[in-house]
Amino acid sequence: QASLSLPSVSVVMDAALAALPALYVLDLSGAGLASEDVARLACALTSTRTRLTSVSLANNRLDSESAALISEAVLKGPGCDGVALLDLSWNRIDSVGAGRLAEALRRCRTKLVSLNLECNDLQDLGIELLAPALRCCRSLRSLCLAGNRIGAKGVASLATALPHCSLEELSLSRNYLGAHGAAALGAAFRAPASGSVTEDVAVPVVACPLRSLKIAVNRIGDTGAEALAEALTGPSCSWLKLECLDLGNNLIGDRGAFALAGMVAQSRAPLVSLNLARNRLQQAGAEELLKAMEHGHESRLQTLELHGNVDLGDSFFSRVVMASRRNCRSIVPFDPLQSALEMCKAGCYSVDLTGVHLGAHGMERLAAAMSNRRVRLSTLILNNVRLTDRDMQCLCDVLSH
After folding, report:
1. CA–CA dist 231, 259 (Å, integer)
2. C-alpha dihedral over 124, 127, 131, 134, to 10 degrees?
3. CB neighbours of 6 closer than 8 A, spacing ≥ 6?
4. Nearest to residue 387, comparing CAs of 364, 350, 367, 358?
5. What is the mean pLDDT of each run of 10 residues along the chain (401 residues)?
6. Terminal-residue alpha carbon distance, the chain
7. pTM score above 0.70
């Protein structure tokens, strides 16, 4: 009878530490690390020059002290300045650990892009400590705080920081926001962005570029949905770039659906995806959403999730597909010339514009893009583009220089 023998934690740690200078990704998720192992790793990360871009210690039952050691080594240490992703999800980090992490973010030396703290125990106090530090970490684009027992008080602190952050993706799913928490987020959307100073770090005036907000499973109900809809419809939220909104499993009924339908039809935010799965929508509310999707003057909605609303029959979902097809504003036409210009700027070596009828203006745009010193183009294909003599002269002038 064959048996499978897994390496011990010490063997895994020895191998990871030995290879540390050459690694780009360090993934010790579910490795069962003890506090002594974490201390060894933190010491190595502080003293070793690495090439790391991603560090994951998810699902290790780390306490706040261990998590703080790792976050301080990664974010403040001189050897990890290339780390863009830090995953500390599914551990046991509480408000004490959140305070230590906040201090590390304030003095962050790496250009951290993504921070995952899902399924810890930060609660309201931890978020109150963490939120002000987000203003200082201007490189952070994605933050996951799902499953942290966060209530309305905690999200209010986070909402205050949102207009001054660079976050593009925020997940607050599976918490305790309720209607008051949703209203706090709505207030943040209505607030104009302004400059501020946090301790000794000056924060410039930058509008919050939030593109994705996930607040599923938070029991916000109709009242919370109405608060969000009102905020996302108001003229003061024109600086928002929100594209994806997840409100799944939130006890939202027809009253909330009517408010959200008004938001879809009139919102200044370029909403592309709206998730209302597993709520309490009935036929009237769902019909209003379809009308807004199909006929709304500002609607760019491409995805509307309604599955799990038990009062909607199977035949209703085929109508969602038809409504999305009729919503011509949600169709983004492909511009091959613009794509080629962006490829030139990005340093591509080959561009093929076969069959693209450029015209005089298009050739001028192409010539201007090729005049950039950063262009590395070695192959340009212009078959069947209807060039005139003037176009050829313009092209020759660029190539001669």
Report:
1. 11
2. -170
3. none
4. 358
5. 62 89 93 93 91 94 95 89 94 96 90 95 97 92 96 94 90 97 87 48 54 96 95 71 93 96 80 92 92 74 86 74 64 68 75 81 84 77 84 82 69
6. 75
7. yes
| Whole-angstrom distance, CA of residue 223 vs CA of residue 184 | 12
Q: What is the 3-state secondary structure (H, E, C) of 198-241?
A: ECCEEECCCCCCCCEEECCCCCCHHHHHHHHHHHHHCHHHCCCC
Rounded distance between C-alpha atoms, residue 162 and residue 164, angstroms: 5
| pLDDT at res. 233 | 83
Q: C-alpha dihedral over 197, 106, 246, 159, to 10 degrees? A: -30
Alpha-carbon distance of 21 to 73, in angstroms, equals 15
Q: Helical H runs in 251-335?
A: 254-266, 283-295, 314-326
Quick: pLDDT tens for 352-366: 888 787 787 888 888
Rounded distance, CA 55 to CA 27, Å?
6
Q: Which residue type sits at 226?
A: E
The span from the CA of 163 to the CA of 135, in Å, is 9
Tell the burial category of 318 from Cβ atoms under 10 Å away from its Cβ (0-12, 13-18, 19+): exposed
State the Cα–Cα distance between residues 290 and 268, nearest whole angstrom. 18
Q: How far is it, in rounded angstroms, from Cα 286 to Cα 320? A: 9
Rounded to an integer, what distance in angstroms lies between the CA atom of residue 56 and that of residue 216? 25
Predicted pLDDT of residue 204:
45
Q: How much is the pLDDT for 270?
A: 77
CB 324 within 8 A of CB 304: yes
